Give the backbone structure.
Amino acid sequence: MPKPELTKPVLLFDDECGVCRKIAGWVRPLAKSKSGNTTLLIRPIGNDPEELRALNPSLDIWDAYATIHVLMPNGSMKLGGEAVGEVFRNLPEIRWLTGIFSISIYGFRPFQSILNLAYVILADVRPLFGCESCGTPRAWVRPIRRIIQWAEDIGGGSPRPKPAPHFTSLSTGGRLASPDLEKEST
Amino acid sequence: MSLIAQFCSEQGARLGACEDCGLVMTFCMDFAHSSQRKSAWRRRRTMSHTDTSSGIQTVTGDTFSQVVLMGAGPIAVEFMSYGCSHCRAIEPALQQVAVILKSREKIVRVNTATEQGLAEQYQIRGTPTLVMFLDGTIVGRIEGPNPDVSSVLSAIRQPYEN
């Protein structure tokens, strides 16, 4: 497979996670400048490890699903909060805001650190907002989810069956990705 | 020497005694699990997932019949999806089990996101599901095993030991 040359940063998102799909849907129109040019390519991770490795040889598909990745045209990758910052930098309407993430005090970037923390929290709480493929929530999120489920059950819903602890139902997490619909040409 | 004991003895002198008694062997597995999970994860990161050096080959609808149904001996098929977090959790353990069983059993994977026909054919309700074949015939299956080496190893071995 010939190596595609990246001319713009590429944001990879988890197409099997409802929250991630929604965020990607928000970002996509923001990544278009007034002239209609796209400043950031947004594509689902998909299911082909080799296809991803063609974009960046050090990119592992399991890692791509574990945390947000932005692939840079120079061959580097940004992960987690750094990737979110890079996405902001490539959105024309809020680019002006992103200077604060570069502010450094004796090597410490306070605003970038806040962004990193915000990303970690968002990634952890995704199961509360409809991430079908996120699996078992982290320990600190589980009590919150139990309370929400309990409140929903009290509110008239039928008690939901307890899911198997290490099993993702195919009707939710294992759906077929549709890269052709959302993949943009690189 | 059992496979577990063999695996433990390969890990160094401290674990060498595990072949003598089951109790120590259990300790050995727990120790191996806790101490090697990270190293297995690091090792996995350097492996190609379509590379058979890890012991886990990816099969598709085109190759399933040739590799699994016409394959001789025990073959465990993991029905998985890359976007499934439970599959991600089980992956390091499965890689270790593949190394332990390398000479005796074959482990292959089927991506249910791209191979929905196979998933329907084998009535896969979710991922990860392990289906054990012996000479092309299903002898066992388990859904969502605990993501640790001993659970995955016993899940894969059990149908062949019965």
Notes: The two ends of chain A are 14 Å apart (CA to CA). Confidence is low (pLDDT under 50) at residues 173-186 of chain A.
